[in-house]
Amino acid sequence: MNVVPEQKTGRTLPGPRMRAALLVLPLLVFIGVTFLAPLANMLVRSVHDPVVADALPDTLERLRAWDGRGLPDEAVYEALAVELLAAREDRTLGQVATRINRVQSGLRSVLTRSARRLRNIEAGPWREAMTGIHAAWGDKETWLALREAGDRYTARHYLNALDLQRDSGGSIVRQPEDRRIYITLFWRTLLVSLGVTALCLLIGYPVARLIAHAPPRRAYLLLLLVLVPFWTSLLVRTTSWIVLLQNQGVLNDIFVFLGLIADDGRIAMIYNMTGTFVAMTHVLLPFMVLPLYSVMSAIPRVQESAAESLGATPWQSFWRVYWPQTLPGVGAGCLLVFILAIGYYITPALVGGSSGQLISNMIAFHMQTSLNWSLAAALGGILLICVAGLYVLYDRLVGIERMRLG
Amino acid sequence: MVTTDHGFWRVAYLGFCALVFAFLIAPILVIVPLSFNAEPYFTFTEGMLRLDAEAWSLRWYRQIVEDEEWSRALVNSLLIGVSATILATVLGTLAALGLSNAAMPARRFATGLLISPMVTPVIISAAGMFFFYSSLGLAQTHLGLILAHAALGTPFVVITVTATLAGYDTNLSRAAASLGAGPLRIFRRVQLPLIAPGVVSGAIFAFAASFDEVVVVLFMGGIEQRTIPRQMWSGIREEISPAILAVAVFLIVFAVLFLLTVEWLRRRNAR
Predict the structure, then answer these.
(1) Whose CA is closest to B161, among B241, B266, B22, B236?
(2) Which among A27, A363, A391 has the least Cβ separation from residue B154?
């Protein structure tokens, strides 16, 4: 018989190590290219934006020598005039103006108008010509904004994503009150996720316990009741909630029929936070029940009877004997539901209305509507860091390799 | 006294569980009768409640079967779903074989990386993929969506196959080797037939994930790549009509078929 050498010496040979690694390698490369590279690309985008720097290199070079007090000298004005005209020619002016406008709003029209009018001006002095076109060129704030937008690498988008900004002295301060939106949204996302997780635990725990200790055939049937929603398309489940909860929907109709509410007093249960909360709980509940069930079904039922025969009340036998043994399942379920909840997008987008939007929806807004991709990337970066942290925690506490589906 | 107390709590407990089960399943069931509504409403009409035959109809089913947009969406969903599933299943099964080997270097780290597409918020994956695939010219192509969906589907294959391999007796491979079989032959003739239920389950999970994926399609797909979920998305957001419910019923039937197959495979595997 063949004696396997690695067992004898306690060392693994390069052979099996190599073979295992070679089997994993194709997928690692595939995930690396199709998934991890896009994420890395997004993170780079959140701190790196070369558009302004590429379009106005000479101006920015000269601005760097400027002390930031008073106005820049004539050479800077001349460089900018030349480069603005060039940017207008290659049709990059719009992109440049949008980015500078994000640093200080109002500058988009200043830039586009200046570029248009500069065509008719043949020679300097440029400072006079430009301040003549728009008074903003006589304000040093404009130049500070231009210089800031010209940074190739910047933490500006992360500051924005946290409702912070740099003042003219360069120190980090909070945004003016009316422009603080993201911190509120992060808080809301956190609270909704915690709320949904707690609710899932509260209603999922008894159900998991019932399934885990039912006779096998009945347990299987009950488990199917949890698995059908688990497998049903997310869009279908969201549609169901619209059908049930909307103003002219099934639940409101029933309430009116029963006389609980008047026909003109229908309850707004959807397109607001209630809709988001109910639909999210429904979607995520199976992710709580399944890990709980798998832990609970390994706990012998006789333990509780034993405890009770020794004089424990049902509550004591549950709390002191049963509950501690289910903690691994509680931890796994809560972490999983929480991780999935903080990144939730589809359900809030469809049933959340304006008050039920979460941070993911803001990322989608900046991706698709405002087209401020750097800010979307920064918000995504922050969310990604949170999820990655929770994922590592999940691995430490539960172990990723023990994750089960269904 | 104690026993009646006990009985009361027992009934309360069962009643509570019944409510939770109703919460889980009723929203899905309610869609089925409503999809036969003769009127363009999302609620039961009086006629439906009286079981008036005229209040019920197949018009929404007829509409989606006749509508070219929906049939094109089905073709796209199947094309993207099947291709992504094949890719994910082959790569995922190979990787699971490697990850199940105790000799695999940096096993925990590699597992973490390979499962990460499943827990990353889909909006982040979609945003990152949009930037990256656009720069490669893969946005608004079927190939781009196939690669993206394959990436999102592989964790399901890795997890199910790894779980099945945990129950695989490696002595069987050793026995085959001692009888002179090479590694490929061992895999094909001994290992694969035994882990096949896990592989098929993983493939079903991966297909279901692609078949239900909307955010990546929303960001990366063009008119030519509209899938069923994408079509439903605009249906829900824009011109909401009970035709959506008819599609939903089809999707529920699919889901139940997938579920029963996977559970059947699991029980077979457990025996």
Answers:
(1) B266
(2) A27
pLDDT digit string (tens) for A172-185? 888 888 888 899 99
Q: Shortest CB distance from B28 goes to which of A26, A28, A229?
A: A229
The residue extents of the domains of chain B are 2-55, 68-240
How far apart CA A42 and CA A32 sit, in angstroms, is: 14
Decide: B80 and B145 in contact? Cβ < 8 Å: yes
A115 φ/ψ angles, rounded to the nearest 5 degrees? -60, -35
Both tokens of residue B146?
A: 């196939």
How close A57 gets to chain B, by Cα (Å)? 24
The chain B residue lying nearest A232, using CA atoms, is: B255
Domains, chain A? 13-47 (no CATH), 51-152 (no CATH), 182-402 (1.10.3720.10)
Cβ separation of B251 and A401 shorter than 8 Å? Answer: no
CATH H-level, domain B68-240: superfamily = MetI-like (1.10.3720.10)
For the entire predicted model, the pTM comes to 0.90
ipTM: 0.91
Which of B44, B113, B174 lies nearest to residue A31, judging by beta carbons? B113
**Which tokens go with B76?**
């796209």
As given in the structure block, the two tokens for residue B33 are 């009768």
Q: CA–CA separation, A352 vs A275, rounded Å?
A: 6
Measuring CA to CA, how many Å separate A94 from each of A97, A131, A141, A369? 5, 21, 21, 16
